[in-house]
Amino acid sequence: MEKALENVLGAIGNTPLVRLDRLVKAWGLEGTLYAKLEYLNPGFSKKDRIALRMIEEAEQSGRLVPGQAVVELTSGNTGTGLAIVCAVKGYPFTAVMSRGNSMERARMMAALGAQVVLVAQAPGSSSGQVSGEDLELVEAETRRIVREKNAFRADQFLLEGNIRAHEFGTGEEMWEQAEGRIDAFVDFAGTGGSFAGCTRALKKHDPSIRCYVVEPDTAAWLAGKKVTDPNHKIQGGGYSRDLPFIDPESVEDYLAVGSEDAAEGSRALARWEGIFSGFSSGANLQAAVSLLRGREKGSTVAFLVCDSGLKYLSTDLYS
Predict the structure, then answer these.
(1) From the candidates 36, 45, 46, 47, which is the catalytic residue?
(2) What CA–CA distance (Å, rounded) separates 54 from 56?
(3) Catalytic: 290?
(4) What is the pLDDT of residues 162-207, one digit of tens each?
């Protein structure tokens, strides 16, 4: 048994990797599915990893000094991770989030000591469906607050700590846990950090591993498709914007998943495997399943369970 941790930050990372044999059998698939249970981090998402890495790297470089305010825009998961890290380390933290994101996230961040600023959605947007236009409004308010507070911006879209958290953490863990038996990896694109980091780690061990980016079918911006509806339900990504972390040379292909298919994927993870996840995890599952039914038939495909279904109880995901 492990010794007691000095604080909760020691509980970030080293999440389990699980074979989804029940679901594979139930759906008549040929191959193996591995799910990395990132929702078992303290803040119930993969974003705890990047929050800790970005803050520690800023401390080491001197960009963040004791007592300085920390600010970041968030769909809720990075904000929760930052709220946890800042609570332990003693930094006042402000999370800036669209009102379109589920309210469980705002309440959790506030409970962890964060100041939560909610930004009204753009005209025509619906609650639970955050678009790139909505995110631009959040970005503008974030920049204003950073100037006002002379704060450190924990910019998850630009700080390389986002990638390194997954390169030296998540990706390496997956490789070791699967004992090197991974043929393909799929990941829903939020900031692109988990895709970039895991891809770097996996390809260092085996350059032949195929890595696929997952996007909403109505907002497949990275794939070069026309955006037909930016107001999809898969929170935390699909914002129809360039993601500098993603190197197109590392992308085997782009896979599109619809909102309802993503929701059904999440429900299937719960029903067949007892894994209670959010929309993006369901999208990852459906993308992996499409590969096992097609070009990756018989292969071993890994993906991340990005966050917990507890963060979506006010949505129609499990209603």
Answers:
(1) 47
(2) 6
(3) no
(4) 999 999 999 999 999 999 999 999 999 999 999 999 999 999 999 9
